[in-house]
Design a protein that fits this description.
It is a single chain. The protein is mainly alpha-helical and 328 residues long. The protein has eight helices and no strands. It has three domains: 90 residues, no CATH class; 125 residues; 56 residues, no CATH class. The two termini are 31 Å apart. The relative contact order is 0.10. It comes from Oncorhynchus mykiss.
């Protein structure tokens, strides 16, 4: 592109020199043209050196190089148009000047729009990656809570399936709890052999037990003794006795309910994050479609610019023919 622009500038300068000073040879105009040519040649050489040093800098470097080349092309085109207006050179153009300038502005605007869309798409992708990491952490936490809940269920089942009382046979056929048997005399209730410690529920159980099993204290037959009240199962809490401490199963059930509520909250949060992730994906797809459309528009504009370059080449050939005819 720079070679074509340089060649067109050379031909314009030659034509201007031939038209402006065919015989007299005005030195001022020629020196002015030489100054313009030297400035343009220095600018072109600077652009070439800059482009050669930044060719292998990746995609960002290529985009910057393309932007700089387009800016330089716009500036050189403006210089050419100013020189044409100054020296009164006109040539038939396939596109009107207003439309050509509009094409140039559209190219620059679309390039800036593409850069903005790419940065927006990159930020959206970073947000998506962060949301994926958050969802992964929530899934890991949910799995750990689920494993803990299963462990608590297993512990609760094992505690509920184990028998609360161990059966021990006696000569009288009465099934007593291990806590009731004294170490000295197996089979006899502990509350008959030794007094209970203060604050024990056995203070309240002892009279009832004496009323239920009178033969144990008198040495008589159990079957012949009359019970004033129906005999409860050994180990049951009599009426009027203090309540027992809460069993471990109750605390396990409370912990299970709490973990279940926590899992429900995590599920709701996971659903919200999934919905947000789907929304971000839709926005990213929309941005990609918009970017593709702008890239297609940019490609069409580049084709129009290539057509303009070919038209400029035809103009240069026409100038060559005119110069050849003028020299003859």
């Amino acid at each position: 592109m720079n070679r074509m622009v340089y060649r067109s500038l050379v031909m314009i300068v030659i034509a201007c020199s031939a038209l402006c000073c065919p015989a007299e040879g005005s030195g001022e105009v020629w020196s002015e043209l030489q100054g313009v040519m030297s400035v343009l040649e220095g600018s072109i050489n600077t652009r070439r050196a800059w482009a050669a040093s930044h060719t292998a800098c990746g995609q960002d470097g290529q985009m910057e190089h393309l932007t700089a080349a387009r800016d330089g092309w716009v500036q050189v085109t403006q210089v050419l148009e100013e020189m044409e207006r100054e020296f009164g050179i006109s040539y038939p153009s396939g596109l009107p000047p207003e439309e050509r300038q509009q094409y140039q502005k559209d190219v620059l605007a679309l390039h800036q729009r593409n850069c903005d869309l790419r940065s927006s798409l990159q930020s959206r992708q970073e947000e998506l990656e962060g949301a994926k990491v958050t969802v992964g952490d929530i899934v890991v936490e949910r799995n750990s809570l689920h494993e803990r809940l299963l462990g608590l269920h297993k512990a609760w089942r094992s505690g509920s399936l184990s028998p609360p009382y161990s059966s021990s046979g006696s000569s009288s056929g009465v099934v007593l709890s291990p806590g009731w048997a004294s170490p000295g005399s197996p089979g006899s209730p502990s509350f008959l052999g030794s007094p209970p410690f203060p604050g024990s529920p056995l203070f309240l159980r002892r009279p009832i037990a004496m009323g239920i099993f009178p033969a144990l204290s008198t040495g008589g037959d159990i079957s012949s003794s009359a019970s004033p009240s129906p005999s409860p199962w050994p180990g049951s809490v009599p009426q009027g006795s203090p309540c027992r401490s809460p069993s471990p199963s109750v605390s396990l059930e409370g912990e299970t309910d709490r973990l279940q509520r926590c899992i429900e909250r995590l599920k709701a949060r996971n659903e919200r994050l999934t919905a947000a992730l789907d929304k971000r994906k839709g926005e990213s797809e929309l941005i990609s479609m918009t970017l593709s459309r702008h890239e297609a528009d940019s490609t069409a504009l580049q084709m129009a610019l290539q057509y303009w370059y070919r038209h400029t080449h035809g103009y240069i050939q026409g100038v060559d023919n005119n110069m050849a005819i003028y020299r003859k």
